[in-house]
Amino acid sequence: xxxxxxxxxxxxxxxxxxxxPAAAADYTLDIFGNANMDDTIDEDDIAYVEGIIKGTNERxxxxxxxxxxxxxxxxxxxxxxxxxxxxxQLTIIDTxxxxxxxxxxxxxxxxxxWNTLEAMRSLKLEKEKIICVSKSTxxxxxxxxxxxxxxxxxxxxSPDTEKIIELDLDAVFLYATHFKTSCDEVQEKLEDAFxxxxxxxxxxxxxxxxxVSELGYIFDKExxxxxxxxxxxxxxxxxxxxxxxxxxxxxxxxxFESFGEPYKICGEGTAPHQIVExxxxxxxxGDISGYKVVDSEEVMMRNPEVIVKQGYARGKYGxxxxxxxxxxxxxxxxxxxxxxxxxxAVKDERGYVILKELTGGKHFIAIAYMAKWFYPDLFExxxxxAIHQKYLTEFQGLDYDLDExxxxxxxxxx
Length: 414
What we know:
By secondary structure, this protein is α/β, with parallel strands linked by helices. It has helices at 2-13, 43-54, 73-84, 114-122, 135-139, 161-165, 180-192, 208-218, 222-245, 271-278, 296-302, 325-335, 344-347, 363-374, 384-395; strands at residues 89-93, 99-103, 109-111, 130-133, 171-174, 196-199, 253-257, 264-266, 282-283, 291-293, 306-311, 351-355, 409-410. The chain folds into 3 domains: 31-93, Orthogonal Bundle (Type 1 dockerin domain), CATH 1.10.1330; 104-200, Nitrogenase molybdenum iron protein domain (Rossmann fold), CATH 3.40.50.1980; 232-410, Nitrogenase molybdenum iron protein domain (Rossmann fold, 3-Layer(aba) Sandwich).
């Protein structure tokens, strides 16, 4: 019975909006050949380049499809090749802002950012192309069972570069903004060895769909990227539309505390900030950039109406645990802090814990949970677990039943 209810809710919340065309997206696909600077490469880009050549259209940065500093007939040829999936080279601007020319096809890659690996799996990328992963990927046996015995290069931001160089790879995928300084150093070493490096995050809502789309073009998985984007946009647009329709009501003030030391806030530019805002909340520390530890008096003074704590424990990533006690203990700790006793969220018992695992590449699931926490009446019919299950089954290819196992939030919502 529950399975049938979950399916019905998914059809209600995600399916109608899954048919939204790619042109409805609000990002620019940073691939050279996207001459008209929208979110896809198609016949419109050919027409736009023809206009540039004739002098009727203004030149754009991405119109130079073959990246030779000229916009001419050769760029039209390259765009036609990209549309047919026949291009031998593809030049992109990655999330770190680097212009990268990729020789295609990519047959041997190392993926040291497990969020990017997760996105690749959503696109049904063949496992045999992934030659090396990070130590953290290997450690997630329940989520990445097919990679538990794969070669790993250690840390995703401080890997064994000599081992990577010896693998005769076509490209290495690193984080873009996460541990940026360390990854900059790794990139320099790998590029000195003539290895192509692509920097993507695949965990921040602000550029997630663009990164997924770029991966689609890089690996000739454009249709799979469109399928996943439809699912993703469908679920989030439903939440966005309801929150906007409810705009006459004040957004709840939310304090999101990062894992680790108390009062580590997540300010503007961080993934948790973007998640809170997408769920219809107002981050009380949205006026501060990045992660920062603040004094408890700052939280008291800003008086949040909802508190969300990011749950984390080494070795626990949700799929390999069934006991919710440790998440409950995290919630009880923050609710029991004497200095927060008079804060609205504590007095009204609106404190929640969400596992760090959900606030990365699975942030759209976290947004669903938070929307339900922030607006319980508005989202009474929203089932975040149903969205999570569909994602695992249809896009991650996992035989994993969330009714039977896994712990991700506390308190649980139905």
